[in-house]
Structure formats: C-alpha cells, structure tokens
Design brief:
Layout (H helix, E strand, L loop, with lengths): L17 H19 L5 H25 L5 H23 L4 H9 L1 H24 L2
C-alpha cells in the first residue's frame, strides 16, 4: 500500500477544537481515498469531497461571523477560491475527464490543506479557544 497523500496522524492537523479536528480528519480521509480510487469511482468520490468541503467551509464561516473573527474576509476568500476549483474540476471529472482533478488531488490539495490548517484555521481555532466563540 502506498503512503497517504496526507498523514492523518500528523499532530499539526489537530487544532484543539473537536468539531474542527473531526472535520479535518474527514477531509484527509476523502483526499487519501481519492488518490487510490479507480476512474469509475473517482467522480462520485470527488463529489463527496466537494459536498464535505462546502459544509466544512460553511461551518467555519458561521463560527467566524458569530465570533467577529478579524480575518473573516481573507479566510472566506480562500474558501471561495478552493470551492470554485473543486466545482470546476468536479464537472470535468463527471464528464469523463478526471485527469486534472486527479492531479489537483495529488499535487495541490495536500499542500494547500497543510498551509491552510497551519495558518488560517489555526488562527481561527486560537480565536475561538480564547473565548470568542459566538
């Protein structure tokens, strides 16, 4: 078996908020499963990643709004950019052209997630743990 694209045991992905950490582990699982799935199963699993990511980001944005998170606009902008990429690539995969979506999963998502978790999500988690949760 090949190594996962994102190691779910990596401690840096645990930000100390149970719901956020659980959601991140679910995203990691989907990304790792996408790396191994065959072409027939890829579009449906990619759709599951999109649906998960939409719900994940909506929850974070709800927390940011309720707690007056100072970097709300930057964080929301990053979410919108990633969702636009996922939607575009999902349409291509659904029409029988999964190559770009597969490359995005392998080459972009692991690095993006690690950076996003370490910067934007870490800042949000710190803000919420400091008692700003609305």
């Amino acid at each position: 078996m090949t190594a996962p694209l994102i190691d779910p045991a990596e401690p840096r992905f645990r930000l100390g908020l149970e719901e956020m950490d659980r959601t991140h582990l679910e995203l990691i699982d989907l990304v790792n499963r996408l790396a191994a799935v065959d072409d027939a199963g890829f579009p449906a699993l990619f759709d599951a990643l999109l649906a998960h990511t939409e719900a994940h980001f909506a929850q974070e944005e709800q927390w940011m709004t309720a707690s007056a998170f100072p970097a709300l606009h930057e964080h929301r902008g990053e979410h919108r950019r990633v969702l636009a990429d996922l939607r575009n690539l999902g349409q291509r995969a659904a029409s029988g052209r999964p190559a770009l979506a597969r490359a995005y999963v392998r080459e972009q998502l692991p690095h993006w997630f690690a950076l996003h978790a370490a910067t934007m999500d870490s800042a949000l988690a710190g803000h919420l743990k400091a008692g700003a949760r609305g």
